[in-house]
Amino acid sequence: MSIVVLTGGVGGAKLVLGLIHTLLPGEVTAIVNTGDDFTHLGLAISPDIDTLLYTLAGKANAAQGWGREGETWSFLAALRSLGGEDWFALGDGDLALHVLRTARRAAGEPLSAITADFARAWGIGAAILPMSDDPVATVVQTGEGPLAFQRYFVERRCEPAVQAIRFEGAETARPAPGVIEAIHAADAILIAPSNLFLSIDPLLAVPGLRAALGKARAPVVAVSPIVGGVAVKGPTAKLMRELGLEVSNAGIAAHYHGLIDGLVIHNGDDAAEGVQLALTDTMMRDDRDKMRVAEVALMLATSIGSR
Ligand code: FO1
Fold this sequence. Notes:
By secondary structure, this protein is of the alpha/beta class.
């Protein structure tokens, strides 16, 4: 089996972990959002890649949703004592990823090669591919003007009302090496229960990626980020309302119209038209939950079969 999963954020990492427990790691390729990436204090930060690295290496701070378990904060305290920007918390262990990535990017290495080396160093068997090696920056248009993603998400805690979201650089970004090939070779393509606007749309904005999904022989199955009529973590529901999408599986299916063949929804939630549905408890609290959702998504893909 060759499974491709489009992912970003915490919810996405949970589904990828469920897939790793269900399949052989070598059967899983994660294509990861890099629209959240930014340079901070001169360091190249790739949050969704790092969340996935930590999650698959068993190092993630599960309660916090980002960063490492058992992190220490000496650097941040020293930074604060010098009046440095501390709104974006950089942990001592976390710094190693950013410092190494920054040094290697400065030496001209692509993000995809650096990420593959990090995954290998931590014994991760799945392929972790950035959506692109070219810069793509999610910019949130608010009443106060444009906000870079992390300024909106972390510094402002998602409170400014959003009028539109754009992905700067997407139009000239190329899919990272292996991305299109993985989509072509896939037996099933999953879209993780990530924030559709902030984690999945940037992926779909990379030229060639959406087209490859449309041409793929593999069925495309999304896992709804809505559980019990509300979006689980983060700003998904608020953004759906602000962007005029109803917070429902019908809204999710409408957003992914023409792209997905199936949708995994939470027991009791509203059904969606025009896609094949599978129902389960889609709340992923522990590894058993994550395996269940992964298995239901794979079974739905298998029942849909090749297109
Ligand atoms: N999220 C926060 O809410 N506060 C932080 O201080 C913070 C620091 C941080 C450092 C490194 C990193 O990789 C992620 C970090 N995040 C933080 C999470 C990050 O903003 C989100 O994980 C993604 O960008 C959204 O999926």
